[in-house]
Specification:
Length: 307
């Protein structure tokens, strides 16, 4: 691997994606590390080091960038307030000799921004949690903690019947994240209201986010009803983000982007019904880099670290 290449880690609530990133942003090689339940910081850091080594001799000595699913404190080289509590407050940068640490939504957004001739881009990363970033002229807007605040925790559900894994009641993450979809899909399967998901539950003993997405894409009525409800919540959030940030383009990435443009169109329809008329002109579309955007952005950040 030539000069200018880097390694990018995109840390998620259930797994971490690692990639060998060329200087032009090309993803050369990638792998995924599953985070065992109950694993502590030393164990997770060791898993990361082993996975980096497993990328092969081309990865040796390359700078490492970390996309963190929460706030970042660059001065101390730690992440905070994330959906991976075992990593919060621990010296992850030092443990991996990383060159860059940034919020995962920002990493994805900056990587995507290089592909679009648009000055104001809002990027929504739909994974275990929900990350939101605003990029203006190629630079991520940071308001607190190296992030755009906590825009994925926009409070929407007055019933407060669910709490996200970070402790917020009634927020967007509690009703429209990958974790929320797995929870609701499990309840649907247990109630016998989805033939496909009930079959998965019977066979595997649990229902995952990926199971729910596959069932919805295959046309299962129960799973599709969950996706439609998620689109309703996300449409409400988009209407608020439009009014707050007035982006020209809104991109959707992360694991739930597998639901495709039809899902994004559902979100757009519901957002348009709630938005000021002059704010309905921006486009909503899938991110071009898909679920690899955070990994690529982390690698690119390692080549131009932010202090």
């Amino acid at each position: 691997m030539g000069k200018g290449a880097a390694i990018g880690l995109d840390i998620g609530g259930g797994s971490t994606k690692l990639g060998l990133i060329a200087a032009d942003g090309t993803l050369v090689q990638s792998t995924r590390v599953l985070l065992p339940m109950g694993a502590d910081f030393p164990a997770i850091a060791a898993l990361y080091r082993d996975a980096i080594a497993a990328l092969g001799p081309d990865a040796a000595g390359l700078p490492i960038g970390l996309a963190y699913p929460g706030h970042v404190d660059r001065a101390r080289g730690v992440g905070l307030n994330s959906n991976v509590p075992a990593l919060d407050g621990h010296p992850l940068v030092a443990a991996l000799s990383a060159a860059a640490l940034l919020n995962d939504a920002d990493a994805a957004a900056v990587a995507e921004a290089q592909l679009h001739q648009t000055a104001r881009i809002l990027m929504v990363t739909l994974g275990t949690g929900i990350g939101v970033s605003m990029v203006v002229s190629g630079v991520a807007l940071e308001t607190a903690g190296g992030t755009l605040g906590d825009s994925g925790h926009l409070n929407l559900d007055p019933s407060g019947r669910h709490m996200c894994r970070q402790g917020c009641t009634g927020c967007l993450e509690s009703v429209a994240s990958g974790e929320a979809l797995a929870r609701d899909a499990t309840a649907l399967a247990q109630a016998g209201e989805s033939a496909a998901l009930s079959a998965v539950l019977a066979a595997n003993g649990h229902v995952t986010t990926a199971d729910a997405c596959r069932a919805a894409l295959a046309g299962d009525a129960g799973a599709r009803s969950l996706v439609t409800q998620m689109a309703e919540w996300l449409g409400m959030a988009v209407a608020s983000w439009r009014a707050t940030f007035q982006p020209e383009l809104i991109l959707f990435g992360g694991g739930l982007s597998v639901l495709g443009q039809d899902f994004i169109d559902l979100i757009r329809d519901r957002a348009d019904a709630r938005s000021l008329p002059f704010l309905r002109e921006n486009r909503l579309t899938l991110a071009r880099l898909g679920n690899d955007a955070g990994m690529i952005g982390a690698g690119l950040a390692a080549l131009t670290p932010k202090t």
